[in-house]
Amino acid sequence: MAERLPQIAIGEDERLDLENLVTGAFHPVKGFMTREETLSVVHEMRLPTGEVWSLPILLQLPEKPRVGPGDRVALVHQGEAVGLMEVAEAYTLDLRALAQAVFGTESEAHPGVARLYAKGPYAIGGKVTVLKPRPRSPLEKTPEEARAFFRAQGWKTVVAFQTRNAPHRAHEYLIRLGLELADGVLVHPILGAKKADDFPTEVIVKAYQALVEGFLPRERVALFGLATPMRYAGPKEAVFHALVRKNFGATHFLVGRDHAGVGDFYDPYAAHRIFDGLPPLGIEIIRVGAVFFCPLCGGMASERTCPGGHRAKRLSVSMTQVRRLLREGREPPPELVRPELLPILREGLG
């Protein structure tokens, strides 16, 4: 049947979005967005029906499609029909205006903007179904599977921890904070595409597995994976990440300094403030400031736990710094990253 339908080629990002739309990971969004939905989301952070949603979920095309409202099309990935769409609208995007509204910049130096421009100025929107599910790794759970797991564990409260990178000491600090606050922690790394200088997904997963198995209470940590690309949309992506983790059954969501940020494109605490202008989302937001190593405090601390008089002695913790030291052939100090993880991280340097 799909062979007789008009075919629309989709990339890996869109295939992941297709499945997330169908499994409910992107609830209440049920399909690739129409123009009205896109404009409402990027300017109002609401769907036309009123629900909070912060990022457009688009099926972009490099050339004007020869389909329109009412058409049924096959979504084809690498020559194979993997999904269907009931086309509600085919339309043209103002990419620069869209970039400014979503990312706060039109600069192609921003990886999310560059990705948006590269995918093309046309789009089709409509509800979707999956014809052929993508093979999933054992770490990939649907929202329904994740919620069932939490019920089986007896977890009534779950703190979700979003990450796109391998774990350093500040990440571990946040996970431990979550363990103090809830019955369990969902460590939910991004499995989709990331910018070139982030660690490869397999290295990120391997490092988190080593951290959970060796240094955290395994019975209270769920290490699953979220198969979606990073958008690097800063505060708006923080809202998106919170809503998605609510769909997976989390009751609380950690938002750190410069959540989903990149370079100097965002104020480090914009991702905290954005939630102040939103109604209750059904998931509690835990805002955490900068986390660092303080030799005077004798360990990891944050801006809320370390005296201001210690500021000059604080050692900032970032994966950019860890990668730089590893590329220079130097060993990052244990205050930055656990020595046991360094062999895994070196694998990711290529």
What is the strand content? 15-25%
Shape annotation: globular
Structural class: alpha/beta
- Poorly predicted parts: none
Average predicted local confidence, pLDDT: 95
Total strand count, please?
14
Summarize it.
This protein has 350 residues and is of the alpha/beta class.
Description:
With 350 residues, the chain is an alpha/beta fold. It has two domains: 2-130, Sulfate adenylyltransferase (Roll); 143-347, Rossmann fold, CATH 3.40.50. It has eleven helices and 14 strands. Strands 1, 2, 3, 4, 5 and 6 form a six-stranded mixed sheet that branches. It has a five-stranded parallel sheet with strand order 9-8-7-10-11, sandwiched between helices. It has a three-stranded antiparallel sheet with strand order 13-12-14, covered by helices on one side. Helix 3 packs antiparallel against helix 4. The radius of gyration is 21 Å and the shape is globular. The model has no long low-confidence stretch (mean pLDDT 95).
Secondary-structure map with pairings?
Elements: E1 7-9, H1 12-23, E2 31-32, H2 35-44, E3 60-61, E4 72-77, E5 80-92, H3 95-103, H4 111-118, E6 122-130, H5 143-153, E7 158-163, H6 169-181, E8 184-189, H7 201-215, E9 221-223, H8 234-247, E10 252-255, H9 270-273, E11 284-287, E12 291-294, E13 299-302, E14 315-316, H10 319-327, H11 342-347
Parallel strand pairs: 1-4, 7-8, 7-10, 8-9, 10-11
Antiparallel strand pairs: 2-6, 3-6, 4-5, 5-6, 12-13, 12-14
Helix pairs in contact: 3-4
